Amino acid sequence: MTGRPTLEAIRRAPKVLLHDHLDGGLRPETIVELARAGGYRELPTHDPEELRVWFAEAADSGSLERYLETFRHTVGVMQSAEALRRVAYECAEDLAADGVVYAEVRYAPEQHTQGGLSLDEVVEAVLAGFAEGEREHGIRIGTLVTAMRHQARSMEIAELAVRHRDAGVVGFDIAGAEAGYPPTRHLDAFEYLQRENAHFTIHAGEAFGLPSIWQAIQWCGADRLGHGVRIVDDITDRDTPHPKLGRLAAYVRDKRIPLEMCPTSNVQTGAAKSIAEHPIGLLRRLYFRVTVNTDNRLMSGTSLSEEFAKLVDAFGYDWDDLQWFTVNAMKSAFIGFDERLEFINGVIKPGFAQLKWTGSRTLP
């Protein structure tokens, strides 16, 4: 067996992505073209490379609120069915080129109605773009529709998710600034989803601490936690061979509640000091159900392969570790058990088995 996985080799690995925002992954060239076509005049620059740099610098602030401000421009150019379909198709194309075999991509339909589209028309346009990308690039994509936690449309969006779940919407989410907007504000939506046997995840434990995680799980019944970084606040003696888990941390681990962690984004928003100090290292060592994700590929200037490569550099992970993260993600996906099992046994394990023995050598 060869040495540590290289970025080149990681790109060939069959990967699974659970936390990726559609409006956070646009190509800069596409933003410029859609802005011109749609008459959007607020971009800081119309040079694609300068725009790429602007997004990265604006997002690298250490503040979740400042990070979220960058979405004004991407959402601003995603106000027509044609734009939404194109962005979804290109998302599928870019993820497939990075070796992602299954992805769940989320977006907030309520943010894309300024051009006159209904919520259903927004969903249909995105699903059409993903369907085209699936056919042409061999990737499987499920979508999550997101409600903004500072708004009051969560029940409407939950009903939208249920209405389109047989067409490709696999789940529901709430997102946005956490402080002051606890998940319990949307309890009626979560109770409705549970009655409808629908899946949902909740952004929690990123900018806010343990109370948001506790509410997301124990009050709202979340299937997964978006980020969940602050669960480490319930773990003491972290630097010893035997860290001690508080009752909430132990519950999260014992119940195998998936954590959708996004290392680069977490550093940018101040949820972690650095990749090397990211809680993912401790949580992986303690066998929490940790998954690795991109969050916003444009703002973070990243890909899933690059996220894995950073963890390899920071923690010395090998192919077994990367496969462990990937199987965790596939186990935690919101598609049916049979399809998840088929991906694990028919795609992920064989793909990693080959890479374990070829390592960083170039395949013929």
TrEMBL record:
Record-annotated site: Important for catalytic activity: H227
Keywords in alphabetical order: Hydrolase, Metal-binding, Nucleotide metabolism, Zinc
One Gene Ontology CC term in the entry: cytosol
Binding residues for substrate: H21, D23, G176
Cofactor-binding details, from the entry: Binds 1 zinc ion per subunit.
GO biological process, one term: adenosine catabolic process
Record-annotated Adenosine deaminase domain positions: 14-349
Binding-site list for Zn(2+): H19, H21, H203, D295
Keyword Hydrolase: yes
InterPro entries given in the database record: A_deaminase, A_deaminase_dom, Ado/ade_deaminase, Metal_Hydrolase
Cofactor: Zn(2+)
Reaction equation(s) it catalyzes: adenosine + H2O + H(+) = inosine + NH4(+); 2'-deoxyadenosine + H2O + H(+) = 2'-deoxyinosine + NH4(+)
GO terms for MF: 2'-deoxyadenosine deaminase activity; adenosine deaminase activity; zinc ion binding
Coiled-coil stretches: none
Gene3D superfamilies: Metal-dependent hydrolases
EC number: 3.5.4.4
Active-site residues (renumbered): E206 (proton donor)
One Pfam family here: A_deaminase
Protein's job: Catalyzes the hydrolytic deamination of adenosine and 2-deoxyadenosine.
Family to which this protein belongs: Belongs to the metallo-dependent hydrolases superfamily. Adenosine and AMP deaminases family. Adenosine deaminase subfamily.
NCBIfam families (alphabetical): aden_deam (TIGR01430), PRK09358.1-2 (NF006847)
Protein name per the record: Adenosine deaminase
